Amino acid sequence: MAINLELPSKLDAAVEQAHAVGEHIFRPVSRKYDKAEHETPTELDDLGKLIKESKRKRAETASKPDEGPSKNGINMISVLNTLETSWGDVGLTLSIPYNGLGNAAIAAVADDEQLERFADVWASMAITEPSFGSDSAAVSTTAVLDGDDYVINGEKIFVTAGSRADHVVVWATLDRSVGRAAIKSFVVPMDTEGVTVARLEHKLGIKASDTAVLRFENARVPKENLLGSPEIDTKKGFGGVMQTFDNTRPVVAAMAVGLGRAALEELRAILEAAGHTIDYDKPAAAQHAAVSEFIRLESDWEASWLLTIRAAWMADNRQPNSTEASMSKAKAGRSVNDLTNKAVEIAATAGFSETSLLEKWARDAKILDIFEGTQQIQNLIIARRLLGKSSTDLK
């Protein structure tokens, strides 16, 4: 039976709109904010207002299934939008108001009442701490129930948009003695007393996006701000929080796919300007070495793209996609780093200088193989799923 890999035409308008943002808003100021780290990109203000106004409408439209047994919904739209804006600039994509990684966390875990209550927030996501990186189960930030509030204490690092978002989704433990089952996520307004931005990091890439250190000192939030169930279930408690990654990892993969496409287009133009035609009817080995390498990189990019839309489609159709989400993130993260670095190498002086954006894209690409779980973590998750092993069995 033939497989139709074309996306539904109803998504065309959203894709075209997102591409226009990447082309006409992001790309022209991409170098500007690469050289002006920590400056707020004011060009996104109007875009943020439009997103806030249309968010509810888009969610309603995305929830309506296509004709037939399957549907493309909010996850697919999010992946496609992210791909197109990341083609323009990844750092600016991460800076779009009301479109933070914490919003994806809320969408993944919140109940219906919380989804409505937090519909208009801009939420960053705070997981990593000074004492751990990839081991999300090592959360030491605490949340203690005191009357009708949870009191949160701890420090979070590498919080994307942490100083710009108006809310932050914080991972904290209800009881450290219980282990990972007690880890829950909380929606915390940034103007809560006891929440402070300790500092902003200086980074290799995605400089248009701020990366903050946040401190929580007796920060009180209503108990209704705990996402999901407050019950500690040793079998599935942590799994509920981890569903966040099933939504966000395909989005990060989409960032890599968008950035990779930008680099491929630039490299193709450079090769053709040098007189090297890319001929798909001839064996790669029979063509110029740079063309042969381009074809390899492009095929790797195609695989990343297909894995990404598969993971998003499964999420929209309520199919367990943890394995596929990790596959898309692992493949796209590794491929975009290979692609952008090789593009810099092939382009020679044009790739290493600031005459084009290739060197910037190579720097931006590195984070896409790190945050939301490193390459090694993704491979570990995939191996556990395929082999039927638990985290205790396979470390």
Comma- or semicolon-separated keywords:
395 residues; alpha+beta; Butyryl-Coa Dehydrogenase, subunit A, domain 1; Butyryl-CoA Dehydrogenase, subunit A, domain 2; four-stranded antiparallel beta sheet; three-stranded mixed beta sheet; 12 helices; FAD; oxidoreductase; flavoprotein; Putative acyl-CoA dehydrogenase; acyl-CoA dehydrogenase activity
Commentary on this structure:
This protein folds into 3 domains: 9-117, Acyl-CoA dehydrogenase/oxidase, N-terminal domain (Butyryl-Coa Dehydrogenase, subunit A, domain 1, Orthogonal Bundle); 123-225, Butyryl-CoA Dehydrogenase, subunit A, domain 2 (Beta Barrel); 237-387, Butyryl-CoA Dehydrogenase, subunit A, domain 3. Strands 2-3-7-6 form a 4-stranded antiparallel β-sheet, with no helix packed on it. A 3-stranded mixed β-sheet has the order 1-4-5. Helix 1 (12-34) packs parallel to helix 3 and helix 7 packs antiparallel against helix 8. The chain has 395 residues and is an alpha+beta fold. It is globular, with a radius of gyration of 21 Å. 48% of the residues lie in helices and 13% in strands. It is built from 12 helices and 7 strands.
